[in-house]
Write a structure and sequence with these properties.
Two copies of one chain form a homodimer. The longest helix of chain A is centred in the middle third of the chain and has 22 residues. Chain A has twelve helices and 13 strands. In chain A, helix 1 runs antiparallel to helix 3 and helix 1 crosses helix 11. Chain A has two domains: about 200 residues, Rossmann fold; about 150 residues, Rossmann fold (3-Layer(aba) Sandwich). Chain A is of the alpha/beta class and about 400 residues long. Chain A has a seven-stranded mixed beta sheet, sandwiched between helices. Chain A starts with a strand and ends in a 6-residue tail after the last strand. At the A-B interface, helix 2, helix 6, strand 9, helix 10 and strand 12 of A face helix 2, helix 6, strand 9, helix 10 and strand 12 of B.
């Protein structure tokens, strides 16, 4: 007899992580699971016995639709890394005690690289100790840096936001640039992978030239060559827009933003907290070249903008959530659902499943040959890869002029 | 016999200034004007003989619809202040020489306070020198600080963007705030008037608590009282979101952002360029209280986000453009079209017309009694005023997943 499912969300929010949650919930109900529990704030909250019976909160199909349109993590997220099994068995015993008490068959965790590490450790522990629960991961990250999956849910919507907003910023600059030069530096998320920054090129089309320069973190950034590029561009046009990754680094490995500040805040996963690359470069150009400059940081807006989400992305996020429940129900464990691209044009994709031992902590970067030779743009191959992922709209349900969300309260 | 119309755009871009341009164009054609010229980059470009025949670029009704959905100034904008008539008659003689050569009857200028100053001077000069052209202004500014009009086109869409994005940022913070405190400071445009900053309260509703604190530039900002508020809030909740105007000032008149930097860039109208208020306050809280903080600047995004424009706003912008042509055609000069609110609920408005001599350079601020007693929020009266202006959507025409704009090339 089938028992219960539990699902959690982890890592940085996206516009569609809740669509995956909706997919988990719906498929679990459809497949006849008894209850669907939600961990509050992922495995960290779960360790504090914080979980809810989702059926008490997702009451009908309209709620499912609202959930698909709600950004950030409905259940709350966490950034919590489980210790190695040999380091602290007590934590694992506690987790499995709760799982057994709640009669959980399937444990679904929606997250990025660090979350797949959680799936790996829990499935390993279950096998080591002869327990029957199945552990399956659902990919999620705006950064698109997970290996083995063609792309990750969350990326498409962030890319659509970035393409749209970059185009609006470019138009803004053009409107104002009569007889004066304006250089706008847009800072985009992506510590090591330039997928999101490259998406700024989506603004390019019949009605827009796109950004003039795009700098991904995959290649070293040369400040003086950059200034030369700007000096040369400014002779030809008045408004220049540059998209840079927050994570661009000098050849010696230092982050560009470190040139202006001492950044020593390190998060729980050992990542350095970054900010200020756009402002630094804007100030540098103002000082060195003397024109008006602006730094625009898309910041947290780019990962939460469900009001301009991609329909493809929302639907795929929903699909991988459902596929994870199906996989666990059919006996898979220690796996992550992936998206396989069957065809570029017409775009078609299908879910697959991979062993998380092959996935965790392996960052997928933009291939060198998808970046232009001089390192200042992305190629048409890059755009052919990204474009299918931003197609279609999934408009918010507007109440009194503002998007309505489904919230846990 | 009717001759020609010329129209220009001036000042900071908005999401709907082109909808006013579309309204001018359509009404001018409908009323039988021969040609509709567009100044490129406002009066500044006009002085350089830069203008186009708009009918060559706006070819059909689809183009009009695209124009209504295109942010920033289609014709290009300028920030150019005409000298007083007695200071430099040559400039005025040049302008009227071109106007007469182009057989202009009606001169329509879309802009804010500074642009109405242009309408005033040109209409004065025409009267002084016995010339027949009519000069009418069309209000435009996201800041909503124009006197005599109930509100200005551009404000509603910016307010809708701010309400929507604030809600998404609040959700983002809630998702991440387990067992740790996160204070997010959102910086919103508005040098002296807090209309836009107050619009952050639109995020408040059944599914969202809204920002915890809202600071408008109308009242002096007390840094130590602010820190006390944060300290007190952080005892009750983990994620705190504060909306501040870029223009908040200390009791002694210094801008808060000046506390961290020396800002000495002054624009052509004598306005001090501001930036960094959110970052300053976020760093201050991190240092004084020790929690994680984030500064989010809506920056230029808030004035160009036509992808989330308000339908009421786009339609009103179109309407005031048309009303200006009608007024000039019927003999009005030295006037600005205004929007009169006929009723709040159901919301109804109509155009009116006022003498620009009464309007120019008179900033409309948020009334004291629309700000809470302790100065940290807006009242329900404020929200009742703003809400009708953000109603309805005017979705972009999406091409390949990204909004299509109409551009002059």
């Amino acid at each position: 007899m089938k028992r219960n499912v539990i699902v959690g969300q982890s890592g940085g929010p996206t516009a569609v992580i809740n669509s995956s949650l909706a997919g988990v919930y719906k498929t679990a109900r459809d497949r006849g699971f008894h209850k669907v529990f939600g961990m509050l704030h992922g495995i960290q909250g779960f360790l504090d016995e914080k979980y809810i019976d989702l059926s008490k909160y997702i009451k009908n199909d309209l709620d499912i639709e609202l959930l698909k349109r709600t950004p950030s993590a409905y259940l709350g997220s966490c950034r919590y890394k489980l210790p190695e099994i040999h380091e602290d068995k007590d934590i694992y015993e506690k987790i499995f005690e709760i799982l057994n008490r709640l009669e959980i068959d399937s444990f679904i965790y929606i997250g990025g690289n660090d979350s797949m590490d959680t799936i790996k450790k829990l499935s390993d522990y279950a096998i080591l100790t002869g327990q029957s629960q199945k552990f399956v991961g659902v990919p999620k990250t705006i950064d698109n840096d997970l290996a083995l999956t063609d792309h990750t849910p969350g990326f498409g919507s962030a890319a659509k936001y970035i393409g749209t907003s970059t185009k609006e910023v470019i138009r803004d600059g053009l409107g104002l640039s009569y007889k004066k030069d304006i250089v706008t530096i847009i800072e985009i998320m992506g510590r090591n992978a330039g997928w999101l920054t490259g998406a700024a090129a989506l603004s390019k089309g019949e009605d827009c030239d796109g950004p003039d320069l795009i700098y991904l973190p995959e290649l070293p950034f040369d400040v003086s060559k950059f200034l030369d590029k700007i000096r040369s561009l400014i002779k030809k046009k008045h408004s220049i827009v540059v998209a840079v990754s927050e994570g661009i680094k000098l050849a010696d490995g230092r982050y560009v933003c470190e040139l202006s500040q001492n950044s020593d805040y390190i998060d729980a996963f050992g990542h350095k907290q970054l900010s200020g690359t756009a402002d630094y470069l804007a100030n540098l150009i103002a000082a060195e070249i003397g024109c008006k400059t602006r730094g625009v940081e898309f910041s947290t807006l780019q990962r939460s903008a469900s009001h301009v989400a991609s329909r493809v992305d929302i639907n795929e996020a929903f699909m991988v959530g459902g596929a994870a429940v199906k996989a666990a129900d059919e006996g898979d464990t220690g796996k992550m659902v992936v998206i396989d691209r069957v065809s570029d044009d017409p775009y078609q994709c299908a879910t697959g499943i991979y062993d998380v031992h092959k996935i965790a902590n392996d960052e997928k970067l933009v291939p060198r040959d998808w970046i232009s030779k001089d390192g200042t743009y992305v190629t048409n191959e890059f755009l052919a890869y990204v474009k299918p992922l931003v197609q279609g709209d999934y408009p918010p349900v507007m109440v009194d002029g503002i998007p309505r969300h489904l919230v846990y309260k």
